[in-house]
Fold each of these.
Amino acid sequence: MDLNTLWFILVAVLFIGFFFLEGFDYGVGILLPFLGKKDLERRAIINSIGTHWDGNEVWMITAGGAMFAAFPNLYATLFSGFYLALVVMLLALITRGVAFEYRSKKEDPVWRNRWDWAIFVGSFIPALLWGVAISNIIRGVPIDENMNFTGNFFTLLNPYSLIGGIASLFLFTLHGSIFLSLKLTDNLLDRARSIAGKLWLVATALLFIYVICGYFYTDMFSKLGVNPGAIPILAGLAILSVRYLLKIKREGWAFVMTGITIAFSTITIFVGLFPRLMVSSTNPDWSLTIYNASSSPYTLKVMSIVAVIFVPIVLAYQAWSYWMFRKRISTKQKMEY
Amino acid sequence: MDVLTLARWQFAITTVYHFFFVPITLGLSIAVAIMQTAYYRTGNKVYKKMTKFWGKLFLINFAIGVVTGIVLEFQFGMNWSEYSRFMGDIFGAPLAIEALLAFFMESTFLGVWIFGWDRIPKKMHLASIWLVAIGSNLSAVWILAANSFMQHPVGYAIRNGRAEMTDFFALITNGHLWVQFPHVFLGAVATAGFLILSISAYQLVKKQKHEVFIKSFKFGAVYASIGSLLVILLGHTQAQYMVKIQPMKMAAAEALWDSESPAAMSLFTVGDEKNLKDVFAIKIPGLLSFLAYNKFEGEVKGINDLQSEDEAKYGPGDYVPPVAVSYWTFRIMVGAGVLMLLIAFLSTLKALKENYEFKPLWYKVVFWSMLLPVIANSSGWLFTEIARQPWTVFGLFTTAESVSNTVTAGEVLFSLIAYTLVYGLMMVIMIGLMTKYAKQDVDEIEKEEELIDDSILSNA
């Protein structure tokens, strides 16, 4: 395996980590105003991700940095091409991050309510837009022979990517509701469980519609064939099992299963892309690949050494912090946010 | 306005804004870690209150620093895609490493620190704030490694139509990095020192002579003194380095049109930027040579000569940065730095004498002095980036070549307005919240603590 392939895998791993972790805290943010009726309940919901949301977001920042370092042309084409969508997403992320920190620093109910809706919008937009973005990358967008995006904002809003966006939105929200049913107590726990059951149906339906659309709008069919292999099938089975696991109140396993769905769906998309990074709908030959978009072998080597040393360290201390703060949050306890 | 001008404005606004918060994060994280260490060692509750009080302000500041940083990381690709293509092989590496080594550590352990009070062992909790401080400052090293490459490119070759990295070690041992990082770091120490000093003075004058703020005032005075003194000494080293590697920048900083030997330093110049000459100037003979070489002789090259040299090297073009902006931002930075040193020393003297009476004028000076480092930081960065023009990477790639060619002026105008509005709103909210917590009665924090302690017990 060459270093270009290794970095393709590493970028995929960063996106999996990002979608798995930020996925549930986007979901928690989206559910916040609906699950939390009273202020203390909303505080408990925010505190359930309080320790982790910032560390989770760094997965996205690192994925961005890794694309810049390993595939500068991908970083350049994607970020300049999806300009307005990214501006909207950045504004959402700015509001969301500040909201977590500022919300409970004043007693004023109007202040708190506004920040709660900021958290909702700030989580809703990226949860939707990442699905839109990934779908466009695999579906293909107009890219010319100089790797320049030649479409505009509306090019990105096509039926396939919108379904992808809504599917990711609901999948993340489901993932978040199951996370909450692992972290909350009493009334809140009941509400999280009940909404998880409802979200499951919508998320699963959307995911299957998205998969079917994938066969029409992308070249996944020709790449994967009638028998798509184990990974996409496992992703599908995992989400189907969630219904049963929720029913018997095994939320831990249900969370693992939505996690597998997110991870394996992401892998499926990356496998479908390989060895491309962005598909050109103008001319397949103008697609960005792990070769024409990559850094030099020397840079890839340096970055590989850095990644091999530090990715395990990061994983270790992040896992440790989840373990340290694994307890459920009740409305009766000390809350930081 | 064209897309280049708009993108430059957006970069300037988003970067300077981000850097209002960064130095406070860098300096205050260490300050809070020191306070908590004192608490850990002595068990003295005063230090615990200090840690909590300044820790709150740290977090209010930190939140905006983080989210505005994401914009910067994305902006290279969004607005400067041609730069990213040409430089990505080198420039992307430190950014990715920054995220992997520093941001993960900073953000993960900040969560541990915020939520760890009374929940995790004290030693572990103390370690977490130190890891936050180390992570923040480590991130500064990596982003400055990237910036240093732009000022002084090393360890690269032009191949395959772009700049490619040939020596990673050269990138991180870049001489520019190791004069720039200490300068930024000490500037951050001074920034945090003044914040502590000013707010402590406010509490001592307007509230009460509480031990927490007497100790904080002392700490702030010493911290600000160390930062201000060393940042000036290092600034001097940095300027001497600049004469060697970026003579045009130095010439612009001094509005030195023609080479002089020995060179005089301008105290006040009104220049004619079109014809590259003075209209009116007050100068001290020989001083610029002294600053450049530590002796009153030696030639410092002027803008006109450097322009001809650059034309010979890079072909016809205008290689002169905006002189008036460079000249004045440089002076504002130095002026603010000198005032900082003066106020910090006077405050330290007062603190040594245990004198915490403030005459009205002196109080005003000390209170508003927290803005001096902010002014110095911003003008310093404006100087260092503007006086590098017309280049993004010195001698290799120009700003005009760097801008995204698929993003329209309308799109950038939209984002520029959107960022400015949101940033403006955030600033108002942040200052409001900072004020609220700066005015807080420290004993109230302790009462809150007791309530919390009770609730934990009743929960158990």
Note: The longest helix of chain A spans residues 3-35.
Amino acid sequence: MTQDRRKIMAAGFDGYQAKPIEVTQFVAAVHTAVGRLAPGEFSVTLTRPLHRDAGGPDDRVMDRRAFIGTLAGSLLAAPLAAKAQLQGNVRTIGFFGPPPSAGGLVQTFQQGLRDLGYVEGQNIKIEYRYTDQALRGHPDLFPRYAAELVRLKPEVIVVSVTEAALAVKQVTSTIPIVTVSVPDPVAAGLVASLARPGGNVTGLSRESRDLIGKHLQLLKETLPGNNRVGALANSEDPLKSAMVADAEEAARSLGLQLKVMEIAVPSALEGAFSAMHSDKADAVLVLGGGAFYLNRTHIADLALSNRLPSVFQNREFVEAGGLLSYAPSTTANYRRAAFFVDKILKGAKPADLPVEQPTKFELVINLKTAKALGLTIPRRSCSGRTR
Amino acid sequence: MAGELILIVEDNEKNRTLERDILQFHGYRTVEAHTAEEGIRLAQPTPPALVLMDIQLPGMNGIEALHRLRSDPRTRAIPVIAVTASG
């Protein structure tokens, strides 16, 4: 009952958790209260997308038995897998993605492999090529690194963004490719369909295109009265036209005025923010990750200094000072990519491995940024300690 | 790994066990109390990093317990999250 809840918060508690406990929310509230999450940041993890709200059984409540089941399953599986793997030869795989300095994503992937029994230097060798330089204005590095990796003949190549995936696919139709952070592998021409990829590409979809409407809706709900939204698209992103079309369609149905700017990243960022400022934009929507992701701190700073509420496709933008994100967890995808590597090393064909779509979405709000912008976030968007 | 200490005040055994399992899985240390009085007693010598407080407890309720914690300088600064049945 909201009445009770109000009474409890008025009594001076630092947060409120309803029974039955929803595990991810409960853990986020605890992490925040003890300071494991950065102060000012608050994260709510939802186990199903907001845009599929209607009806259905409530799957957000995990009971004790289910929780213990997951726990026991993962604890038991790891040593068995480790034993099985260590008896084999050293396997070589390729990794074409962010460098170790980019938020621990490579490390998460390596940890995912270790959990499945693959220890780098012991039974697995990883050839690395990084996407950061290529995304920072040297797109010629995509085909170059892709060719280098393919020449090394790894058994599978893990790729982060659409550009990297397309570049590798261009040079090999036989080496399996696992995507980690591609917004829409079908539209990008990487797979025939999510269920039956058909070629040498499979992996994880970020489903970001479906989320663009949700991002605009969040802006509208969080910031009522804000109607003029500036959208930034990266002119080098292979999916930019599709994303722009999605954003325009969503804006029309929500009654928002959208002004799209296709820009070179990072050189045109400052100019774009000045243009939005003089256009009197109320908020900014950033379409896509990739080059934007690498410049997230700069983008968050620009949004704040131009006093623009911002919404993004990755939580890392919000950790860097952006206002809102609603997205699948990037970290979860990097961990899950190890599962695809394992399947392929055990003989599965990418053509038969369905592309996985995210099932967990996080709404992340940077309360420090909200405060700096003079915004009050509706209470229902938060839980736990929010002061 | 010595995680932060969390005090669980909860009279229902099922809920207490669930909270404990989740917290320990995430690397926290836990201490448990069945009543508000016991919770206050446990919080004083070694202040936990966080208290998870059930509201409907036999004897003293969670709100009263919070006031007690806040009026004692040793436990005043401990964050307290209410855990309660939603109607």
Note: Chain B has a mean pLDDT of 89.
Amino acid sequence: MSLSVDIGLSRPGFTLDVAFDSPGGVTALFGRSGAGKSTIAGLLAGLVKPDRGRILVDGEVLVDRSAGIFVPPHRRRIGSVFQDGRLFPHLTVRRNLLYGAWFAGQRASGKPLSDIVELLGIGPLLERRPATLSGGEKQRVAIGRALLMAPRLLVLDEPLAALDQPRKDEILPYLERLRDETRLPMVYVSHARDEVVRLADRLVVIEAGRVVSSGPIAEVSSRFDAATGAEPAAVLAVTVGAIDRAHGLATLDFAGGRLTVPAGRLVPGQPLRLQIRARDVAIAIGRPEGLSILNILPATILDMRDTGPTAVGLRLDCGGTVLVAEITRLSAEVLGLAPGRAVYALVKSVSFDRPAVE
Amino acid sequence: MPLLTPLEAEAFGLSLRIGAWSAGMSLPPALAVAWLLARGRFRGRTLLSAIVHLPLVLPPVVTGYALLLLFGRHGPIGAWLESWFGFTFAFRWTGAALAAGVMGFPLVVRALQLSIEAVEPGLEQAAATLGARPAMVFLTVTLPLILPGLLAGLLLGFAKSLGEFGATITFVSNIPGETRTLPIAIYTLLQVPGTDAAVLRLSALSVAVSVVAVFGSELVARRLRRRTAGA
């Protein structure tokens, strides 16, 4: 799958002008509310017509204003999941799920109903009507409905924004399974960093109708760039190693070394994505002794830049993995930090992509 | 003694038949117009709305006269229908149904338009992204969701046509067994002294039928709403 977007749109008080490409996987459109992310989702689905530009999916032109091409939504084969679910209130869950599948009937059909029902855990809901479902259940059904139309691309427009945290935690594992088991390309619109870190392969940061940053998630999120509108953080793919039951700790292995964290419900061999925020990393020039911090990683300074009147952002190479740290400029001067210098990164805290601790 | 004299029963039956036909036949065009007014974005939308609502504010006599000019034997549409299909509105019960339909049209459109506007456009958009052509979106999403409004509009049109008087008598006159509906029969009886009992009987009948129609529409609408709400 490849997605190529280059579009412009003008509305009173709002201008959208964005271009980005995606080779597949999960592409997150990330930014504040009102930045234009949902408009882009609407443009992809065909519910909004751009003033100019092109949208290509797998080389097929869906929109090309200069050539007068605009493929209507029902012929795009792009599944959409909306923030408000939009289940048909007059149909049962089963008939909601099969709605798109029925129109998709002729073409090579996707997964059977039973697979999707199992994947999303919605078996007990099939004969119920949407009004009797919880918010989380509604969104799972909405995702299932979009999957059953056998889409070539799934656009999720803030699918969790209307839910409280427990409901989000209920759905996120299903989205991860979806990503890992179906390999269906997705565009995931969100303003929530934790969702994006957990799900996305690529990040497109949108602000005021423009793309301010885009690329692989680990790269974009580690940039010290005020324009991304988000706190810099390293995103690490790790594997759970040994578990020390006596101390309740687990080791996490990644390319640049090993981290020790509270074990919680982690199981050995489990893959995880985690985030280490720049402000949770301190720097030492020698291996510190007598410190309570468990995670001390040798690293080399890649580059440094001022991130405020008193702060400096550092990007560190830790055995091939990029870590980021934000410290005071005074500290940087006192320690004599400069690119190329070998240092120790002291990781004060690690945020997981899933609730690892009970 | 039977409840109604044969003449009265005839007027009653005629009213029911004209009401059913006028409401039924005005439904498809009313649905189209209501959809245009609720969802359409085109120039002349306000004008269309004004024309549709005209029978509500015009004196019924004027509406009846306009129908006579257009659909009478010598009117452009009436003459054409007669020469091509041998079909006549003038001075026949079909004309009474037309007059009643036109007079009730704004009410039916109004009921339908409100229920179409109440359908969340997001649902129709969702259906489109799932592969439904616009006609299928209408049939599988919009139509089922407006069913309560549709039935309410139908019964409202029916009830309205039972009471139609001015346009009917102007357009198709007062012919026993053909165009003498309940209100016209009441009016005719009022012209004759000593018919108080008959006038009262027919008036009570009118009230009863109207009440049943209006209550029925409420009841059906509520039951359907409960079904779509899924509670």
Note: The first strand of chain A starts at residue 3 and ends at 11.
Amino acid sequence: MVPQFSATPLDSRRIRAALAGHAIGNEVQLHEELASTSDHVREQGFAGHPHGLVVFAESQTAGRGRRENRWSAEPRQDLLFSILLRPVVGIEKFSRLATLAALGLSRGVEGARDPEAVLAGASRPCSGKDETPLLQSQPARVRQVFSPQIKWPNDLLLGGKKFCGILAEMFASPSGPFLVLGAGMNVNGVTFPPELRGSATSLRLESGGQALDRTGLAIALLRGLEQALQFWDTGFESVITEIKQRSFLLGKRIHARIGDVSVEGMAHDLGREGGLVLRRDDGSLLELTSAENARLA
Amino acid sequence: MDESNSPSPKESLLDLQEIRQIVDLMAQNELSYFNLEMGAFKIKLRRGSDLEAAKDLLSSMPVAAPAVAPAAPLAVAPATIESGPSSHTPAAVESNARTINSPMVGTYYSSSAPGEKAFINVGDSVDESTTVCIIEAMKVMNEIKAEARGTIARVLVEEGKPVQYGQPLFELK
């Protein structure tokens, strides 16, 4: 049983210091509990806060996924945050955000490969007893700890199981549209509701049970996001190219629902805007830009 | 078909098979006009009395090899897939009616979440800042404003159904 509130809290001062001068993270808020980080950032957006505000919460009472799928997590175990974005791109490119975020967070997880960045702060093992940090017992500095895959369009997987979800929302305010990018990443949590067992995992579970330094990981994630967002307007084709290399679905047979319509076929390619191109049994190509429950057939 | 002024089918963004699909989809969804411009490539399709003739013309032409790259999402948005008999027929709009149109390709939702109250209903008054619906595109949930004043006369789209760029969502009176 993981003891609640005994885990190392996020260090917001360290995050602020690491992101000084960066667009993403120019303002960082840390709350012990919020109903929803995305709802909070939305309010801040309407209140006029600038681009790049990042709000973390150690726990959420009403975290949301797509179309209000609830996201629950134990306090101080995972990373729950939302970012305020005031893009300069046109509305027709807003739909790129979730794709960009999936790549940015994947890179961030990979960028945290250095044990000193991610694992040095490890303090609470699954058993509740102290464990030797991976850095001391296994100083494999060149080893890439995590190689996440992207399940179209914006779920992050390790070993075929989801460990991170992304929610992007656009709001129109009198001062112009803004977007709220929310993410929930399973980091040190090791228990999941029965309905998620078998389909969910955490970085801790995928790295041998060692607790991770969430602060170092948060910094890596925000840097990865900022880097990916540079391709929001131009150079998006390079994002698609990289996502293809990380795709979980490409080359597999999938089933998806669009409203009350079911579709099935081979995940053949990604379109230039990130849509999933299916090759159906009759040979025809079909590009999905929105789908619920895209899954292996 | 009104015109297709790409240099040749093989140099165009869309191959003939895809153009034929668009024509079919226009008919199935009762769309009267399709326009796509990307760089030097331009294609305009107008559906009218000569549609059948255009389809006959397409079917008589050699079919290009299957395209490696899919068409832009605009051309093959999920609105048009698997559109079985009368699965979704967009409501007709009076030519002079004022409408609130979709600013993007995506999926229409009337409320913030399943089971939640719809943002607006027939008879509601709206102004420029009234949120009327959500359009989801590539998992980005876009809150759409009315951008106009009036009273909702009709809702022209169905919950969870794909919509096209510029497609009327609501009729105003």
Note: Chain A has a mean pLDDT of 85.
